[in-house]
Prior knowledge:
4 helices; three-stranded mixed sheet; 2 domains
Amino acid sequence: MVDLAASEVSIQLNPKDNIAIARVDIAEGTDICLPDRSVLIINERIPAGHKFSLCNIAPGEQIYRYGYSIGIATSSITPGCWVHTHNLSVGEIQKDYQLTIVNPPLTHPSTLSFLGYPRSDGRAGTRNYIAVISTVNCSAHVCLQIARQFTPDRLREYHNVDGVIPIVNHSGCSYPPGSLSQLYLQRTLANITSHPNIG
């Protein structure tokens, strides 16, 4: 059989790996030319996406993928063999846990504060926006135009106002009175109105 370059039919994810991944189905008896110019003969059919050994792997030896151990060989694996659950096991996982002494956390100051805007209900906002809210589509354009009039230049002397924002929707008047749609819209607009960032 004609030798195939390893890169044509497989990929070795890390130079440390002792296995490669088949990019396509590889037939038994296929000769693969490895980067070091040695020839590897595939001993059995390797399904696409599966692993095959690049070297001899003894029982109990680690099998590496991405440069990390993915388990141990449960039997002797020769080059070109399919590496799967029949000859690969996770084995016992051993972790080297270490204790680290951490300095005690910083104590909090007795008085916690931030630059905010206290609201009458006890909450605090981190912004102070003025909202121009449209309850129906008919007034959406007007709300947009009103908000656009409050440019940064016009608001420069109002240091406590972060901006004027339009809140518009494109329905409202089309909803049947008392309908679930109207209820959700009213509830949403009410929640925006009472948001602590809306002054």
